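ESCALATION

Customer reports they have been waiting on this structure for their group meeting. Please prioritize. Original submission:
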Amino acid sequence: MKAYNKYMDKISVSNTLHQKIMSSTHAIPKRWPIMIKRYTTAFACLVVVLLGVLIIPKLTQYNVTPIPGNNQSVLEPGTITPTPDSSSKYNLYFNKAGGQTVANIYIPGHFWQELTSNEIKAVFPMLKNTRNIKATANFQSDENGTTLFNIDAYAISAAGLKTYIQLAPSEVVLDYVFDSETKSSDVLGITVTAGYFETEPNSKGLKNIIYFATFKLSDVAYYVELSGAKADKEVVKNEISEIIGLLIEGGAADFDIFHPVVPELRDDRLSLEEARADIDFGAYIPLGIPADFEFEDALRFINQEQNALFVTWAKGMGYIDWRVSFLDDIDQTRITSVADTQNYDIALYPIPRADSVPDELREIVDNPIFLIDELTLDVVQSRTYETIDAGDEPGQRMRFGVLYEDILVELSVKGVSSEVILDILQQIGK
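Update from on-call: job pushed to the front of the queue and completed.
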């Protein structure tokens, strides 16, 4: 612990790195750059996935770009006390959904910005007076210019209900599908298709219910979603109905209010030689990869949140995924001393780890960061496990990060021994 504390006490960063850290989005977990997730519920949900044109195969264990957080409104029954007039004046018919869906969409030159109060007023003219609204505009840019891709927003009621709203020019991405023909509702002259989806019971035998709806105002498409405990379904249903009515009353969102400034962006596929020549991170790409693993792809990525280099090698269903970046504020919360075995030794946490890992340790146990000077074979082996899934091949797996001063190397591996991985990591910088 002394060495660990001494090391941490003397860490300092350059002005350039400081600016990069301070300019990043700190409230959102750092993500891999080839995927954007829009989380809808904490318990059952589809993610809207925005993937790059060329996908690096196993890199999708990590995430990417800030979009508002979990749409988790009511997790336990009876936690909402309806007001005397909790019913909505807007009546909708909700069709039962048959399942969930995932859409893969490429956004060239993706960047985002949080909506200002004036922009919120232009986009949600009626809703802003009764709900607290947090929203993010996602843009795409290329040689032809910059356009709005969509808006992800949450409208939070006084009772704490958190309704997800997606707006987009022309079309939105839907989370759920229907097995049969649907019945639509007329709300102030606008056709609304609404539905609901019930989750499987949780460990306490409780179900959750998700209400959702789609409609269009002029050329603006809307998707609205709210979830809660099934026991509170009437309150949840009334809230989403009210939200939909207020959106329609306010009329189509004014997208002309946006005047985005394109930040520094980079999304370049590289050869292995180009990756190793990268001025910032090339020195941290390993040379001693096992001969039977073949180079698959490399990506140099910069956006508002991260500046990183990704490389992947593969052998059959085995892989080595490698990410190099500057250490940022969020990363520091995952740095652990090797003396604190509860932070990283997966032998302490039987599968399913969702049940065995304490909530306060979940993030660090999932992906701890070690100082390179502290890394030993015992530490690497403590991160190594083997499991066989249907259709998969056996092989040792591991996931963790290693800190070289202010450079962070994160790896996710299958099919390589602990001894080989340790040797690869110790050879970096020599």
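Sent to customer with the following note: Residues 2-24+264-427 form one domain.
Escalation resolved.
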